[in-house]
Design goal:
The protein is 57% helix and 7% strand. The protein is mostly helical and 351 residues long. Among the domains are: 160 residues, Orthogonal Bundle (Ribonuclease iii, N-terminal Endonuclease Domain, Chain A); 78 residues, Double Stranded RNA Binding Domain, CATH 3.30.160. It has a 3-stranded antiparallel sheet, covered by helices on one side.
């Protein structure tokens, strides 16, 4: 027992000496209080990252079990102000529109019926159930009439030699539902549409976009509305191949009809060049002639395909829709039939 007690005393002495030496070393290295510089370190705490990672893992597990959350309209957010967003829509597009007209353009008929049904369920009197709210039916009709008329006139002015079937095909391409919905979404109309269903169906988005054009016509006149159509709808033709929009079922037959109307000879396809005829990848280059004049040439892996493609190239050259044509006249607006007629006669005489 005596030896054990002596060992304990020795250990205590060694520990005390060790702490004294550490204290002496610390005192010699610590500067004076006047020389201490305290700096504040700003940053994220250590617990933030694992905490957020835990929340993310929990959200992912809930999405796996219950599925993703359904889409919510922008109006469900706390910081949403419909009147402010509606007021900012016109200046964002550079248009001066009346608030009542713009509000009617964004209101679908289903929204009005939904609000009236909700009031009816609340037991309000019949005179209070009927809402004095205008929907966009009338404005969309005006917008569609102006849009289709202006696009037809613009295409006819740009391609006066193109048949009516080709003009209609280009018009249908520009005014198709997917195209108008794509334009409307990029203009920011999705969050402003008042509809009974969400997400907003594409037909409702198209009708709202046409109603906006009708609102521009109602507040600023038809010329400003035509400029709106040209800037946002007709401009979608830039960089597009108009020949791909019109699928001609029988190009050689149509070429023969066009040449017959002009009093020229029938089209004659001839092989200009060919390569690899006896291989698995042959190439045939065919040219279409009329009265010893080359109308168009193209190549294909088979002879019928080359003849058909050469006929399409010949039609594009005759209708002035080939790739080497001049760009669309988006800087000028041809609004009168006199200008269109004069341009058509000029191109016909030049050809």
């Amino acid at each position: 027992m005596a030896g054990l007690g002596r060992n304990c005393v020795l250990c205590a002495r060694k520990s005390l000496l060790f702490h004294r030496s550490c204290l002496t070393l610390t005192r010699t290295q610590i500067p004076l209080a006047s020389e201490v510089v305290v700096t504040q370190v700003r940053g994220t705490k250590r617990w933030v990252r694992p905490y957020l990672q835990t929340l993310l893992n929990r959200i992912n597990k809930e999405n796996e079990w219950l599925g993703p959350l359904p889409p919510q309209p922008r109006s469900s957010k706390i910081n949403w102000n419909y009147e402010s967003e509606l007021f900012a829509f016109g200046p964002r597009l550079g248009e001066k529109l009346n608030m009542n007209t713009l509000r009617a353009a964004f209101t679908d008929r289903s929204y009005v019926e939904q609000e009236e049904e909700r009031r009816r369920e609340l037991g309000l009197p019949l005179e209070d159930v009927k809402l004095d709210m205008q929907d966009n039916s009338h404005l969309s009709e005006q917008g569609w009439e102006l849009t289709t008329n202006y696009i037809y006139r613009f295409i006819r002015a740009e391609f006066p030699l193109l048949p009516e079937e080709g003009v209609k095909a280009i018009h249908d391409y520009v005014t198709q539902e997917d195209m108008l919905v794509w334009i409307a979404k990029h203009l920011g109309v999705k969050d402003l549409i008042r509809c009974s269903t969400f997400p907003v169906p594409p037909p409702v988005t198209k009708q709202v976009f046409l109603a906006i054009i009708g609102a521009v016509k109602h507040d600023q006149g038809p010329q400003r509305a035509e400029a709106f159509v040209q800037d946002f709808v007709v401009a979608q033709l830039v960089g597009k191949d108009v020949n791909a929009m019109w699928d001609v079922p029988n190009p050689m037959g149509m070429l023969a009809e066009v040449l017959q109307k002009e009093g020229r000879g029938e089209p004659e396809p001839r092989i200009i060049n060919q390569s690899g005829v006896n291989t698995v990848t042959p190439v045939f280059c065919v040219g279409v002639y009329s009265d010893k004049e080359l109308l168009g040439e193209a190549s294909g892996d088979t002879l019928p395909k080359a003849v058909e493609e050469a006929a399409r190239v010949a039609l594009a050259n005759m209708f002035k829709t080939h790739e080497g044509r001049k760009p669309l006249a988006l800087d000028t607006r041809l609004k009168t039939m006199a200008e269109i007629t004069g341009k058509t006669q000029y191109l016909e005489n030049k050809s």
